[in-house]
Amino acid sequence: MVVRTLPQPRPAKTGAPSPMAVLELLKPITWFPPMWAYACGMVASGADLFARWPYLMGGVLLAGPLICGTSQAVNDWYDRHVDAINEPDRVIPSGRMPGRWGLWVAIAGSLISLALAWVLGLWVFWAAVVGLFFAWAYSMPPMRLKQDGWQGNAAVGLSYETLPWLTAVAAAVDGLPDPRIALIALLYGIGAHGIMTLNDFKAIEGDRQMGIRSLPARYGPERAARIACVIMAAAQIAVIAALIVWDRPIHAGLIGALTLAQLACMTRFLKDPIGRAVWYSAIGVGLYVSGMMIAAVGLRGLTGA
């Protein structure tokens, strides 16, 4: 009988991790999407941004370095065996994050997030509870939503885009968001499902070995790339249609132009999904989030109508 063993991280050094190791674990490059979404929500709310600056700055800090950073620590802790295959130089499998420090950082990040959210008000606090729930449920057994690419990417997309957008609006107006804002925030969160799929192309081999059914591991890179592109494009087309209905043709036109640019990039990406996933993430995602702010500016005018 063949006994299958999990790849093990390298032996960790003793003592506390260095500040740079902690920062690497929190992955600052991943903080931008929820921070940007929160900023979009503040703009769309129609509130006086100067008067509400504590909610703007506090919410951006909460969405990015705290909750998103915590989610990265949680993910790396529970993925340390997968990373030993896919990316052995990451901070935990490489041994630069000693012992169970990865877990302690994730717990500390959760508690600090809740404390700041409480200061910012009940709307922000309960949104933080939801965000942290998905941050842990995505990676931690037994839920481990990331085991399935459809539900895992949906959870991350909605948590990264829709939730911080709506949280910002609720904090700014101290109440429920306008239904039109909620719809646009939801659409961009759905479209972010495709963005999350782009991150899975680098880990296909390890995901297959560990039984993680990401879309590239499940359907193959070519089909997964087509699915990601369709989801991203369809969400933006729906946003464009909504803005036209709400008499915002200029904003709709600008987002349409950005979407056309993305479609041109998608054509190249689809020819080599694995080789060009990082390239498309850099260009296509930048165009996608630019459209989010344009939509937020258009919604700002609507909220006063």
Q: Please, could you describe this protein's structure?
A:
This protein is an all-alpha fold. It has one domain (19-303): Farnesyl Diphosphate Synthase (Orthogonal Bundle), CATH 1.10.600. The protein is built from 13 helices and no strands. The protein has helices spanning 19-26, 32-45, 53-78, 80-86, 101-120, 122-139, 149-173, 179-198, 204-210, 215-219, 221-245, 249-271, 273-303. The longest helix has 31 residues, at 273-303. The mean pLDDT is 89.
Q: What share of the residues lie within helices?
A: over 70%
* Structural class assignment: mainly alpha
What is the straight-line distance between the termini? 71 Å
Report the major sheet.
Answer: none
Q: What fraction of the residues are assigned to beta strands by DSSP?
A: under 5%
Radius of gyration: 20 Å
How many β-strands, per DSSP?
0
Number of domains: 1
Which word captures the global form? globular
Q: Under the CATH scheme, which architecture would be assigned?
A: Orthogonal Bundle
What is the overall pLDDT average?
Answer: 89
Please mark out the parts with pLDDT under 50 across 5 or more consecutive residues, or reply none: none
